[in-house]
Design brief:
The complex is a heterodimer.
Chain A: H1 2-8, H2 15-40, H3 52-55, H4 60-65, H5 67-100, H6 106-118, H7 121-139, H8 147-153, H9 155-168, H10 171-180, H11 185-213, H12 217-221, H13 227-237, H14 239-270
Helix pairs in contact in A: 2-14, 5-8, 5-9, 5-11, 5-13, 6-9, 9-11, 10-11, 11-14, 13-14
Chain B: E1 12-21, E2 24-34, E3 39-43, H1 50-58, E4 65-70, E5 73-74, E6 85-88, H2 100-110, H3 115-128, H4 144-156, E7 162-166, H5 174-191, E8 194-199, H6 202-208, E9 211-216, E10 219-224, H7 226-231, H8 236-241, E11 246-253, E12 256-259, E13 262-267, E14 274-280, E15 285-288, E16 292-301, E17 306-312, E18 317-322, E19 333-338, E20 342-347
Parallel strand pairs in B: 3-8, 3-9, 6-7, 7-8, 13-20
Antiparallel strand pairs in B: 1-2, 1-4, 4-5, 9-10, 11-12, 11-14, 12-13, 14-20, 15-19, 16-17, 16-19, 17-18
Helix pairs in contact in B: 2-3, 2-4, 3-4
Classes of the chains: A mainly alpha, B alpha+beta.
């Protein structure tokens, strides 16, 4: 008995416990989603089911009614693109530079990138409010400027995704091999490093998009309109449409996360 | 030899090169002169500074002092990508997202060589290392030996004037090591590229290099032909590191050393007459009829020869090399004597 339990320590759970855990977690996640889907087909207080709430989305009158919501979706997509651009243009080169040239700064960079996850969003907003009074003066109050704040909130997730890729490939040797083969820094970055960081960069980008699409607190407190703030507004007058859009946003996030999972599997199979 | 080299390497000169990491001095004033087309092996234990010296020559490591001249030009301020060098690394360094052919073409592509020409040159270089049939494969589809041969082809395709090899064989199994090291030497001789080969394996260094530089604590202890290093080591460290040496009590008198009853020329550091330690090769000790008595401890069959350990009366254990026909029984008493004309000595 003792021997048997000693062998089991640290071993992965058997098929039955795994299935059980998956079913329980799956149910916990699925029940509210199924509830939301069911809700979108309800006719109203009169009872019964209808497709009207779904078909109404493509209706011209509805388009006018929900113009604000569509505009907010547009804002969120622009914000997602600008946030990803910030990750790719600022965070990625910084991480590569620190990894290859200034490895002693690795801990500091990690610490800085992890900070946003430890600070509650409301506290972040209090700190960002005076900063945004300056941002508005310099860049105006266009919705995309919110991406500066989002660039900070996605740091922990984007950092981990890129760092995992940096550690999985011997970037230093690849870089040095490139140097001895007459390649300049920019050409090594483009021809050698980026192709080998593709999975990390894509994962960081997808996670950033998912975080931006789900962000509410900062946008709300800085009086900006994005998908989440607009959903809250719409839900006050039309809870069905708000739920439909929430479902669509969830579906989009699922697709992104599944894509990241597939990237991870590709990496394993090719190594 | 396969005729006259088709390409000549550049002369390389390292003069008083120093490099310090914090409080650790990795290079304590390296002086090294390499003739065009020469193959020099930097040999030494881990942490002796041999890889740092190679990286300093490549430009991957900045130096703190001294000068590095390639073809007579000081390259201290020349970045790695403009030094006209080829390098093979210890760890597999092929670009994983490129095929073998694309890897080999890379250096030519960076030098903006036209596509048709670079394809032809890359294929020709792959033929040289015998891997042209694997041109379409990726690094993860190759064995370690194949990867290093592709890395060699990639380093050679631009016909660099200096080739740097940073322990390229250390991750390979014994048979592949020997085959690849012979291939490296053959190609290097054919192309006439000045080559610096870093290794901690003395057999490897002695087998391929024109000259071997033995490094210790950031300095070159001795540089010379493999024969010279083996037969006339200039210091106890070299004698101990290159080949196998027995440490035997001896007496020094007027430049000659008396060890196990025989007298030989004393090599190495200048010491005052008196008791010293002699470093004697196993093949320089013979089992004789009237030498110093010793007891057989163990015997190993090494294929073409046999190495037997014997214990002297003072407890010193010696390794003695002899023919496979002479089988000595453990526990038997034998007599040993030194046959070398010259023996390294160090202070006792």
């Amino acid at each position: 008995m003792t021997t048997r339990s000693a062998v089991r320590i640290g071993a992965e759970p058997g098929r039955l416990p795994r299935t059980l855990i998956l079913v329980i977690v799956g149910l916990i996640m699925a029940v509210p989603i199924i509830g939301m889907i069911e809700f979108t087909f309800r006719a109203g207080l009169s009872g019964g089911y209808t497709l009207d709430h779904w078909t109404g989305l493509v209706d011209e009158d509805a388009a006018r009614t929900y113009r604000g919501l569509f505009q907010a979706i547009g804002n969120s997509l622009v914000l997602a693109v600008v946030t990803v651009a910030i990750v790719v243009v600022i965070l990625l080169p910084t991480m590569i530079l620190v990894h290859l040239r200034f490895p002693r700064l690795q801990r500091l960079l990690e610490f800085v990138c992890i900070i946003p996850i430890t600070v509650p969003a409301i506290v972040l907003v209090v700190g960002l409010a005076p900063v945004y009074s300056v941002v508005v003066k310099v860049f105006g109050s266009a919705p995309w400027t919110l991406a500066f704040a989002y660039g900070i909130t996605v740091l922990p997730y984007a950092y981990r995704a890129i760092q995992a890729n940096l550690e999985a490939v011997d970037m230093r040797t690849l870089f040095e091999a490139g140097r001895t083969l007459s390649a300049s820094w920019p050409r090594i970055l483009w021809h050698v490093l980026l192709p080998n960081l593709r999975r990390g960069v894509l994962a960081a980008s997808f996670i950033s998009v998912a975080v931006v699409l789900g962000e509410f607190t900062i946008a709300s407190f800085l009086n900006r309109s994005n998908l989440q703030t607009a959903l809250l507004q719409v839900s006050k007058s039309d809870p069905w449409v708000a739920t439909i859009f929430a479902l669509l946003a969830l579906l989009f996030a699922f697709i992104l996360l599944i894509s990241i999972g597939r990237l991870g599997r590709e990496r394993k199979s090719s190594s | 030899m396969t005729g006259a080299p088709v390409h000549h390497g550049a002369p390389v000169h390292l003069s008083g090169v120093t490099k310090t990491y914090g409080s650790h001095q990795a290079l304590a004033g390296i002086d090294l002169e390499m003739a065009p087309g020469e193959f020099i092996a930097l040999l030494g234990p881990s942490g002796c500074g041999k890889t740092t010296a190679l990286r300093a020559l490549s430009g991957l490591e900045a130096i703190d002092g001294g000068r590095i001249l390639i073809d007579g030009k000081d390259v201290a301020d020349v970045p790695t990508n403009r030094r006209d060098i080829g390098m093979v690394f210890q760890s597999y360094s092929l670009f994983p997202h490129m095929t073998v052919l694309e890897n080999v073409e890379f250096g030519l592509r960076m030098r903006k060589v036209e596509k048709m020409e670079r394809r032809a040159r890359a294929t020709e270089t792959l033929e040289m290392v015998g891997l042209d049939h694997l041109a379409g494969r990726y690094a993860h589809q190759l064995s370690g030996g194949q990867q290093q041969r592709v890395a060699l082809a990639r380093a050679l395709v631009t016909r660099p004037r200096v080739l740097l090899l940073d322990e390229p064989l250390s991750a390979l199994d014994a048979k592949v090591r020997v085959s690849l090291r012979d291939q490296i030497r053959r190609i290097q001789t054919d192309l006439g590229i000045t080559t610096l080969f870093v290794t901690h394996d003395q057999e490897e260094a002695l087998a391929v290099a024109d000259r071997v530089a033995v490094m210790n604590a950031g300095r070159i202890e001795q540089i010379g032909s493999p024969e010279e290093l083996y037969t006339r080591p200039s210091s106890p460290f070299v004698a101990d590191f290159v080949g196998l040496s027995n440490k035997v009590s001896a007496e020094l008198l007027g430049g000659r050393v008396t060890v196990l009853g025989a007298t030989a020329e004393a090599l190495g550091e200048s010491l005052a007459d008196g008791p010293v330690t002699a470093l004697v090769r196993p093949e320089d000790i013979r089992i004789t009829a009237d030498g110093t008595p010793a007891t057989v401890v163990a015997s190993s069959f090494l294929g073409s020869l046999r190495r037997t350990q014997v214990r002297l009366e003072d407890g010193t254990v010696l390794a003695v090399q002899h023919g496979v026909g002479d089988q000595l029984e453990t526990g038997n008493t034998v007599h040993v004597s030194v046959t070398a004309a010259a023996v390294s000595v160090s202070a006792r």
